[in-house]
Amino acid sequence: MTARRLIAWIYAALFVIVGAFSGTFFIRTYREYAQLQRMEAETRQRLTQAEERLKQQERVLERLRTDPAYVEKVIRRQMLYARPDEFLFRFEDSDDQNGRRNPGGGG
């Protein structure tokens, strides 16, 4: 073998090694990029949902600030308040100790 052929083989081997390393690095980087894109899409979706919830809560807050009838409705529903001339009836499911409903309906 001549020196030129030996040098050509060394360069070819180095080219293959560098190419394999670069290919591996590229594939790994591309997979990481694809994963980051998926994470970004999921985060954008969660952001959109959070913004929708925020808008809904802002509407409720605005109604609580400006609509006395709505405030009364919320207080009555959540705190079970009634006016002095009203009666509140609360119906609760009665279960025995095994978790089955009591067919008689009594407590």
Shape designation:
rod-shaped
Question: How is the main sheet built?
Answer: none
How many separate helices? 2
Strand content: under 5%
What is the straight-line distance between the termini? 103 Å
Number of separate strands: 0
Element pattern in H and E: HH
The residue-averaged pLDDT reads 86
The value of Rg in angstroms is 35 Å
The unreliable regions are none
Count of discrete structural domains = 1
Percentage of residues in helical conformation: over 70%
Output the structural class: mainly alpha
Concise description?
The chain contains two helices and no strands. By secondary structure, the protein is mainly alpha-helical. The longest helix has 64 residues.
What would your notes on this structure say?
With 107 residues, this protein is mainly α. It has one domain (3-79). Helix content is 71%, strand content 0%. It has helices at 3-66, 68-79. The protein is rod-shaped, with a radius of gyration of 35 Å. It starts with a helix and ends in a 28-residue tail after the last helix. The mean pLDDT is 86.
How are the SSEs placed, and which strands pair?
Blueprint: H1 3-66, H2 68-79
What are the salient characteristics of this protein?
single chain; 107 residues; mainly alpha
